[in-house]
Write a structure and sequence with these properties.
Order of helices and strands: HHH
Shape: flat
Helix content: 25-40%
Oligomer: single chain
Number of strands: 0
Distance between the termini: 41 Å
Number of helices: 3
Length: 66
Amino acid sequence: MKPMIITSSCSYCIQRILCVQFSILDYLHLSKYCRHLLFHIFVANPSKVPFLSKYRWHDTSIYKNS
């Protein structure tokens, strides 16, 4: 993995994401499901981005009462 560089330049960060040049820092406290989701959202090919309903923790019942 390439190390993430903290920067104030939004365009630089966006370019890194678009080129799939990012990593999640180890000291961030994220669940394994969250990490998995992030790695599958930020992919070079948009057709490879998964639907949210694929993830077992996704709860659609909150939308039924709206």
